[in-house]
Amino acid sequence: MVSLPEEEAQHLTRVLRLKAGAPVRVFNGRGSEFDGVVERAGKDAVRVRVGHARGTVPEARVAVTLAQAVLKGDKMDAVIRDAVMMGVVAVQPIVTDRSEVTLQSLLRGRRQERWARIAVSSAKQCGRAVIPAILEPQAFDAVVASLAGMTLPGPCLMFVEPSAAADAVAAGDLDRIPPREATVLVGPEGGWTPEELEKGAAVSRPVTLGGRTFRADAMPVVALTALFTRWGEL
Amino acid sequence: MVSLPEEEAQHLTRVLRLKAGAPVRVFNGRGSEFDGVVERAGKDAVRVRVGHARGTVPEARVAVTLAQAVLKGDKMDAVIRDAVMMGVVAVQPIVTDRSEVTLQSLLRGRRQERWARIAVSSAKQCGRAVIPAILEPQAFDAVVASLAGMTLPGPCLMFVEPSAAADAVAAGDLDRIPPREATVLVGPEGGWTPEELEKGAAVSRPVTLGGRTFRADAMPVVALTALFTRWGEL
After folding, report:
1. pLDDT digits (tens, 9 = 90+) for A90-139
2. Which residues of A touch B213 (CB under 8 A)?
3. Which of A21, A49, B67, B137 is close enough to B92 for a disulfide, judged by CB 3.0 to 4.6 Å?
């Protein structure tokens, strides 16, 4: 028997209006999903009797952390939703020189909590039984320090404009054998500054996506799809 | 000297509020972009003196037509915007068994005109000087007949669920040598019916994108990115 978290309990009673005896599926956010039956559906507390485990969507063989510059307005919501759909294991929001937000305003606006709720909802929609972690927003320099200190996992791929780095590799030419873990750096609307490109190059490999211009909010899904195609996930 | 189309003329005078003498860029929708100077900015008519040609974003070597099932609500707007960003040359909207719209309601709602405006705006945003054609919506059977009669270009790739076709190929395993032209079939929220899968198989090759579940409105950008990665465009 398990109790649902408050938000899911309210969704079950107030939106879905389920009563005791209703069949449901529950998942533990760490890869397992189960059949269940509602035992008690109170106003703010719901208890579910847990039954058999179910098959879920297989997770990617590469554990990707998306280190994404925070975008303007609510565009980051779409980025979180898409990244979870694609199959990342974590999103590290970053504040760069050209981000139009500050770390303080992100914390004040409780954006991390909002993004975590979006991650839950996208995982449910896409049949993932793993809820990716939404990490605490960090400044670009702090993320570079984490990469240098290996607290962020695996090799780092930094997506850049073709003009930004002479030694960049096209996504389609990356090694077909995937790493076990990888961090993927994607910049804001205005792109990386020359200083950020230089600092990034010290801890990552610059990667391009050909000569097209992609909208900043579409970059994560395009970058992740290109990588997963190359790595045999699609 | 050229006159701008009415909608662009109004955008220039009423939104951008440009006057005679203002420097602008104009493009002819067929691949060329030019520097220009506003010569006369009247209320509904704007004339521009055309100067030197400019470099534009290179077009894909594969001329892709996206044959996309019309989605619910305004989700098709996002699909058109993304497909133009990715670099398709045309979008063929199709009405399938599980589409929640009819051809009649699309025509009555002037959706084709709306999508054509979105195509212009997305092409401008992404620096493309080619405006992809938004074709007249057709029933699925009519599109299959066009593919059989070769009025739609090149080989056809039909994106399907892995469970839908035993002989489907993964996008990442397609031939690396791109065709000159291709038609890409993408289904609606509820997927293809067994009858549509059968009719489609007669004129196309079934292609899968691994075991993940993608939102219907994200399918075109994921499918096109996977193809373009495989074909050396990204």
Report:
1. 999 999 999 999 999 999 999 999 999 999 999 999 989 889 999 999 99
2. 57, 85, 125-127
3. B67
The crossing angle, in degrees rounded to 10, of helices A140-148 and A194-201 is 10
The answer on A77 and A46 residing in a single domain is no
Instruction: For residue B222, give the chain A residue with the closest CA.
Output: A225
Q: Quote the pTM value.
A: 0.84
Residue B154 in tokens: 């090149």
The domain that holds B44 is classified in CATH as 2.40.240.20
What's chain B look like in SS3? CEECCHHHHHHHHHHCCCCCCCEEEEECCECCEEEEEEEEECCCCEEEEEEEEECCCCCCCCEEEEEEECCCCCHHHHHHHHHHHHCCCEEEEEECCCCCCCHHHHHHCCHHHHHHHHHHHHHHHCCCCECCEECCCEEHHHHHHHHHCCCCCCCEEEECCHHHCCCCEEHHHCCCCCCCEEEEEECCCCCCCHHHHHHHHCCCEEEEECECCCCCCCHHHHHHHHHHHHCCCC
> How would residue A68 be classed by pLDDT, with cut points 50, 70 and 90?
very high
Residues in chain A within 8 Å Cβ distance of B127: 213
Distance from the B135 Cα atom to the nearest Cα atom in chain A, whole angstroms: 23
Domain that holds residue A135: 63-230
Q: Inspect the interface and report whether the beta carbons of B228 and A210 lie closer than 8 Å.
A: yes
Q: Is the same domain home to A15 and A97?
A: no
pLDDT of the residue at B2: 85
DSSP summary character for residue A152: S
Out of A57, A212, A218, whose CB is closest to B221? A218
Tens of pLDDT, residues A24-35: 888 777 667 788
**Nearest residue in chain B measured CA to CA from A227:** B229
CB-nearest partner of B222 from A209, A211, A225: A225
Residues A193, A87 share a domain: yes
